[in-house]
Design a protein that fits this description.
11 helices; mainly alpha
Length: about 300
């Protein structure tokens, strides 16, 4: 394993160990406190990090299958919450079918088909099928709901599998695994930094009607700390440098915040707090990957433009 990745994984597991120690020590220091959520969160993080580590170390095939499973669970959560009619079953089947077809394009390395399949052909096929069904009640609303779910849960997250196809000569610092590792760490760190700085310094609410706990102080603190993390780690893990590095460092935290707030608005509209209870302490898969659905395509395309020759 390249040394930068070894150090990176070491840092992640060190943070998990510290979190586990905090979950053990805090109940002793504050006997009356309820630390159930903290214990659940740390335990869930261990499972998720071990799964990700195993998939990344096994290579692009295992990573593709893991994120296909993540896409399926995320889409299932979304479609189970979104309003649907009995007549929509054919379109729901088509939505799930986009997952194996997108995976097929990754496995045969057909980027040109992957990049247009969902945004163009699925976008056209969904309203056509709904027109064939003959149900025009709520037609525009239903087509928009299905396409939003497929784009965010399948198409956007699928760019992670495409990143794993980048050959070592195009990312000599830490290979394709280094590219994906930076994306995942920066996205999740942004959520943590926003939460911590918001708790410590938050005074002014940024989206009171959508996500009342988010503050300007938390948003700015997360932005600065995540940008600093990317500027420090990216030269060790990716071929990014110069303007491309600074643009990704500045824009990735904004995209993560946008994904978080957008899914908060969707959940508020649907009247739910979490998309499911699949991950103890975290909620559902969508609650965990909401920021990632926005950061992944932005990171992929900026990286491809500024630093990669493969795409």
């Amino acid at each position: 394993m390249p040394r930068p990745l070894l150090v990176g994984f070491g840092g992640v597991y060190a943070a998990l160990i510290l979190g586990g120690l905090a979950a053990l020590v805090l109940p002793m220091l504050r006997p009356g406190g309820d630390f159930t959520n903290l214990r659940q969160r740390v335990g869930s993080w261990w499972v998720m990090i071990l799964l990700l580590t195993g998939a990344l170390l096994l290579g692009w095939q295992a990573t593709t299958l893991l994120f296909a499973a993540v896409s399926f669970m995320a889409l299932r959560e979304f479609l189970s919450l979104a309003p649907a009619r009995r007549e929509d079953r054919l379109v729901i089947f088509l939505a799930y079918l986009t997952i194996p077809i997108s995976c097929l394009f990754v496995f045969i390395n057909a980027y040109m088909f992957y990049v247009v399949f969902v945004p163009v052909y699925v976008f056209l096929a969904v309203p056509f099928l709904m027109a064939c069904i003959g149900q025009t009640r709520g037609y525009l609303t239903s087509t928009a709901v299905f396409h939003w779910g497929v784009v965010t849960c399948v198409y956007n997250l699928g760019h992670i599998a495409l990143l794993m196809l980048v050959p070592r000569w195009d990312a000599p610092q830490a290979g394709a695994t280094g590219l994906v590792f930076l994306l995942l760490v920066a996205t999740e760190a942004n959520d943590v930094f926003q939460y911590v700085t918001g708790k410590l310094f938050g005074r002014h609410k940024i989206t009171p009607k959508v996500s009342p706990n988010k503050t300007w102080e938390g948003f700015i603190g997360g932005w600065i700390l995540t940008a600093g993390l990317i500027l420090w780690a990216a030269p060790w893990l990716t071929p990014l440098k110069g303007p491309g590095l600074w643009i990704i460092a500045a824009s990735l935290p904004l995209a993560g915040f946008a994904g978080d707030v957008t899914f908060s608005a969707i959940k508020r509209d649907l009247g739910v707090k979490d998309t499911s209870h699949l991950i103890p302490g975290h909620g559902g898969i969508l609650d965990r990957v909401d920021s990632l659905t926005f950061t992944t395509p932005l990171y992929f395309h900026l990286l491809a433009y500024f630093a990669l020759q493969t795409y």
